[in-house]
Amino acid sequence: MKKIVVFIIMAMVVLASVTAFAATPSKGKILLVASSENTMELQDHSKMAVGFYLNELAVPAQYLAKQGYEIVMATPSGAKPIMDIGSNSAKFFNNNEKQRQEALYFVDNLKPISLHEAVNELDSFAGIFVPGGHAPMTDLMQDKDLYLALRYFHAQGKPTAMICHGPVALLAALPQATEFRKAMVAGNIRAAMAASKDWQYAGYKMTILSNPEELPGELAKHTQMPFHVEDALQVAGGAVVEQGIYTSHVVRDRELITGQNPASDIALAKEFVKALQGK
Predict the structure, then answer these.
(1) CB-based contact 41:121 (threshold 8 Å)
(2) d(CA 159, CA 152)
(3) Given phi > 0 = left and psi -120 to 50 = alpha, else beta, which region is 187?
(4) pLDDT at 222
């Protein structure tokens, strides 16, 4: 009985928090783009379960909502994105179980539309945000609708924020994004460089999960990623800036704001809001 009472109280607290978000007058809409994929083929051709990282999606989105922004989630399929089960842990929320519960509730109440639908109303969005998890390495980095969205936000100078593996989705802005990904998976750097022509973010300072941060997961799984996201951005012409291991690091260059890893969630959110406010 005691456990039931505790659960009910926690649910009421979470509901009150989410209700407070909804009651805040909107300052504008943010397009939150998540992957529709739940598996990724590795170098040895085995399949790995992938999805979004809970804190990387929820913490920035919750912060934006608290600041008065409306969150509109979109995925390529229009279906709810899959969460990486490994991210469903209080350790990503400073060991705060209440914050983890609030994050789950918040994300569960986001009703996605298709990315194609979102592209038809891009002028209604103040900014765009892509969370991490390995999933953006699959569909998002070569999605044609995301190509249109990123081209629009770049041309308009509207804030564009991505975290951890999320910045690999910037490669969707390549005219030859599919060819670029195939070349990276094949380890053909020359072909990847050729396919990276006319990338709108070439020369931008940016960050993404570093190779040293990716390595422990590869060792634990006794396999390799199809390619490393840090390498992909560098090959395409990004000025990748890494700082430390598993510690918060955010890079802002013009309209682009990127966070290196899960620990960068709240710092990314705050820098994103500054950009939205023209600061």
Answers:
(1) no
(2) 11
(3) left
(4) 82
3-state secondary structure (DSSP) of residue 184:
helix
Helix axes 54-66, 97-108, angle to 10 degrees: 80
CB 56 within 8 Å of CB 133: yes
Q: Do residues 51 and 81 lie in contact, with contact meaning Cβ atoms separated by under 8 Å?
A: yes
pTM above 0.85, yes or no: yes
**Whole-angstrom distance, CA of residue 182 vs CA of residue 194:** 12
User: What domains can be seen in the chain, in order of their start residue?
Assistant: 2-276 (3.40.50.880)
CA angle 197–199–203, rounded 5-degree value: 110
Looking at the predicted structure, is the pLDDT value of residue 22 above 50? Answer: no
- Other CB atoms within 10 A of residue 252 CB: 18
Sequence-ordered strand ranges (E) for the chain: 28-33, 39-41, 47-49, 69-75, 113-114, 125-130, 160-163, 205-206, 239-240, 250-253, 256-259
Are 99 and 93 in contact, with CB atoms under 8 Å apart? yes
Task: Please state the φ and ψ torsions of residue 261, each to the nearest 5 degrees.
Answer: -160, 180
- Closest to 241 (Cα-Cα) out of 209, 268, 265: 209
Q: What is the pLDDT of residue 24?
A: 52
Q: Which two tokens stand for residue 134?
A: 């390995």
* 272: three-class secondary structure by DSSP: helix
Number of residues written out for the chain: 279
pLDDT for res 25 = 66
Rg (CA), the chain: 18
Would you say 214 and 232 are in contact if contact means Cβ atoms under 8 Å apart? no
* Residue 217 or 82, more confident: 82
**Alpha-carbon distance 230 to 107, whole Å?**
28
Closest CA to 131 of 171, 161, 110, 175: 161
Question: What residue type is 273 in one-letter code?
Answer: V
